[in-house]
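2024-03-11 09:14:02 INFO worker-7 job=invfold-0412 stage=load source=structure_tokens
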């Protein structure tokens, strides 16, 4: 499948149903990308007098699908400012009304820990995100839709991640580009009886019981496997990955790769490239699916960036590309080392320049900075390269005949971030470089560069990262003041709570000797 053409895949049943109502598809032979309430345009972003919206057709498809699939409950999903999935359910009797008019709820939840007074907010379902939840029964089935959030007078909510990301994507389209991403999401899976979830203070909340004797074998299999292992010790994790991939593809989310990662019990499932808004929805869905499937297998999955001191952290390396029509704007036919176009070089320069101020967005938790340490194959400097896994930005090697796959890999994010804000920040930083002709620094070619180059260092703690982000003109321009303020208030509260908490390290280190 060529990069720059895919949007969302569908099962044969959904294709048949949509074809019956005349709804078009995004596919290798169909270049359009569309979201709720936006005018349909081709990937070349050309205007057309015949352009229409697919809202009515999409709504009709949802109503027919709900009837044919015996759907009884519909979960309306959205995320708070930190990217945690929130929502509420309606019954099938309310579906048509809510599709047309939205549903009211207390929008104070969007501000997460920083919420105060109740705020009347309207959830407007995006019918193009309709999904049947495959882990729920087929009788009286459950479906979901992502929602755009608005005020009661239908103004976009300034703290809604989908609205924020959509806005910066429009900025890219005005320049003639569509933004595509392909994240590589890592996580840990463990049986509820797994010894690795023990803490000095007793069992953590990850251990919730279960059949201890029967689950021992599962935990042993899960933690015996290593990087890319395909042998029998990987039975537990391999089964989890299989079920997750099947569930994602049933929901119309195509998967590129899945494999065991470096850490014991660590796994990676990579999603196939698509436009950034669809991918942000997919990342949120991915996290829900992984946790639901793990729970049904008697275990627990975590996207915590650094859950274990002795094992690798879990990241979300994010591959990005800009397309102008069918052409990859990052590719150049010039016979240089990288085959990077001038647009690609300026985009990387923007990422390098603004990396410190967007780190709070891509790495938003106290624990995130336990992963961003030297020697962990995670970046600590704002640098770029063609090969070194310790650099912030990597340009994968060009393969002849694969011009469409030219991309930039940004290695700082972890899978626990808010994907809407993270993709917004990454695109905004890259576009700053493109629009303002940022010069690109020299690539790093040695593997031990910390002492030999004068490089900007990424923040080393959440407090440092949020302080920089709070003052960032780039973030305030791309996310908006209200979203930045809400995000930073939450992070200041988290840092204050962390500072007041006595950790196991302190107890073990000092209790007996001081």
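2024-03-11 09:14:09 INFO worker-7 stage=emit residues=514
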């Amino acid at each position: 499948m060529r990069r720059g053409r895919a949007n969302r895949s569908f099962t044969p049943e959904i294709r048949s149903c949509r074809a019956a109502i005349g709804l078009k598809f995004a596919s290798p032979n169909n270049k359009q990308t569309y979201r709720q309430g936006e005018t349909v345009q081709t990937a070349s972003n050309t205007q057309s007098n015949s352009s229409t919206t697919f809202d009515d057709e999409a709504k009709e498809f949802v109503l027919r699908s709900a009837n044919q699939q015996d759907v009884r409950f519909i979960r309306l999903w959205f995320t708070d400012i930190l990217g945690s999935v929130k929502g509420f359910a309606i019954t099938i009797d309310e579906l048509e009304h809510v599709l047309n008019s939205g549903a009211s709820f207390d929008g104070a939840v969007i501000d997460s820990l920083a919420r105060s007074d109740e705020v009347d907010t309207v959830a407007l379902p995006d019918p193009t995100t309709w999904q049947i939840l495959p882990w729920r029964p087929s009788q009286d089935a459950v479906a979901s839709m992502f929602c755009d959030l608005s005020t009661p007078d239908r103004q976009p909510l300034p703290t809604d991640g989908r609205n924020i990301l959509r806005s910066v994507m429009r900025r890219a389209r005005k320049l003639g580009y569509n933004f595509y991403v392909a994240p590589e999401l890592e996580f840990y899976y463990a049986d509820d009886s797994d010894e690795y979830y023990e803490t000095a203070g007793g069992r953590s909340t990850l251990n919730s019981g279960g059949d201890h004797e029967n689950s021992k074998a599962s935990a042993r299999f899960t933690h015996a496997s290593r990087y890319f292992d395909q042998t029998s010790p990987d039975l537990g994790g391999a089964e989890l990955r299989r079920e997750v991939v099947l569930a994602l593809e049933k929901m119309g989310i195509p998967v590129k790769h899945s494999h065991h990662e470096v850490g014991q019990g660590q796994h990676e499932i990579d999603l196939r490239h698509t436009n950034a808004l669809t991918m942000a929805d997919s990342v949120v869905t991915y996290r829900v699916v992984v946790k639901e499937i793990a729970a049904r297998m008697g275990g627990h999955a975590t996207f915590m960036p650094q859950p274990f001191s002795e094992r690798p952290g879990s990241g979300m390396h994010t591959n990005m590309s800009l397309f102008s029509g069918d052409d990859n704007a990052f590719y150049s036919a010039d016979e240089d080392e990288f085959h990077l176009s001038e647009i690609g070089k300026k985009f990387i320069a923007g990422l390098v320049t603004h990396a410190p101020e967007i780190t709070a967005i891509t790495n938003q938790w106290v624990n995130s900075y336990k992963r961003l340490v030297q020697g962990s194959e995670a970046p600590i400097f704002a640098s770029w390269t063609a090969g070194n896994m310790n650099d912030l930005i990597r340009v994968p090697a060009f393969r002849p005949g694969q011009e469409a796959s030219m991309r930039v890999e940004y290695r700082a994010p972890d899978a626990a971030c808010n994907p809407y804000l993270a993709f917004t920040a990454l695109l905004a930083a890259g576009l700053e470089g493109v629009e303002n002709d940022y010069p690109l620094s020299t690539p790093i070619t040695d593997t031990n560069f910390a002492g030999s180059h004068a490089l900007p260092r990424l923040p080393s703690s959440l407090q440092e990262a949020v302080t920089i982000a709070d003052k960032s003109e780039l973030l305030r321009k791309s996310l908006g003041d209200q979203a930045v303020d809400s995000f930073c208030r939450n992070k200041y509260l988290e840092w204050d709570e962390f500072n007041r908490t006595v950790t196991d390290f302190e107890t073990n280190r000092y209790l007996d000797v001081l």
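2024-03-11 09:14:09 INFO worker-7 stage=report msg="The radius of gyration is 23 Å."
2024-03-11 09:14:10 INFO worker-7 job finished
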